[in-house]
């Protein structure tokens, strides 16, 4: 396929929108000890968020894998690694050194009573007291970017092998994806996670001790790459099966609510805190069926170009970089007002979306070199907006 997949841009925007809504709720969920945690929590909100919690990250990594296919080219090339490193490493280091700092500062003030200024905290405590959570230095939500960078390096030779003409594994993937066996691909992240869990029992987002879940995210990333690579021969099947995919997602969600999310812990098949093999199988199947559902419907109904789409897609990465700092700041000022959870959550969500979008727009107006710090093209806004669409070839 030679034209840009506009629906992938829309899926990317949708995935990050879900992320903003979810992160805004984290403080109010009873089973999550987030950066700033509200004394008032909501079981109802937790039940609502249990559903996107199962697939939101899988979708993000899957869409990122599809995006990687755009830049990989027709064959393995070191330019892929250069582009990915430049696009991901600079924003990661900048965010860890600057953007993330207020998050920890607000947390230390709210949870520990710290009274120093942001400048004082940044210059005297952030870099010198060790790693978070005992210390202060952290990559916070930027773990996602760090994982993408490491995945790109690890997957580079694998992708290079898979795209070689006549590759048997790629041919098998193409054949299988045209049949109902496509729904069994969730077994890949499940098998890898279960095999590695004895060595890496907890999800940490710290990379060095998170092998079981890194393998899960890398699986979604790789499936996204392959799906985009063989898009022209697979998309009709995915679109044609979109109602089947939706039905599987619906049934799986119902079973999870019935046997995991809405029952007492001692009667549940598992939970996000107690990741039993059966529970993992359920959420991975839900994640995969939701991905296929969203791809199928988006490719069928939302594959048209749009100037607004191009602008929104350009702003997604800087918006992601700044959003959690905005959320934590909003929580710091809203929670002391002691309002009902529904009101506090609504205010925090609105503040997160509006201020993050505003900051992303401001970033887009920065001069060339400064834009690179937020993952944007260094050529300037007008040139970046007029760049031709990347091509995706089989």
How would you summarize this macromolecular structure in one to three sentences?
68% of the residues lie in helices and 0% in strands. It is an all-alpha fold.
How would you characterize this protein structure?
- This is Acyltransferase 3 domain-containing protein.
- This protein has one domain (6-100, 139-386).
- It is built from 17 helices and no strands.
- It has helices at residues 6-25, 43-53, 56-72, 78-99, 101-112, 118-126, 143-162, 168-177, 187-196, 211-229, 231-240, 242-261, 277-301, 307-334, 341-364, 368-372, 381-386.
- It is globular, with a radius of gyration of 21 Å.
- It starts with 5 loop residues before the first helix and ends in an 8-residue tail after the last helix.
Overall morphology: globular
**Uncertain stretches of 5 or more adjacent residues:** 383-394
The proportion of residues in beta strands is: under 5%
Compute the CA-based radius of gyration: 21 Å
In total, the number of domains comes to: 1
Element-level helix/strand string = HHHHHHHHHHHHHHHHH
The percent range for helix content is 55-70%
Q: Oligomeric form of this entry?
A: single chain
Helix and strand content put the structural class at mainly alpha
Tally of strands: 0
Largest sheet descriptor: none
Number of helices: 17
Distance between the termini: 6 Å
Look at the structure and give the mean pLDDT.
93
Give me some keywords for this one:
disordered C terminus; 17 helices; mainly alpha; globular; single chain; 0% strand
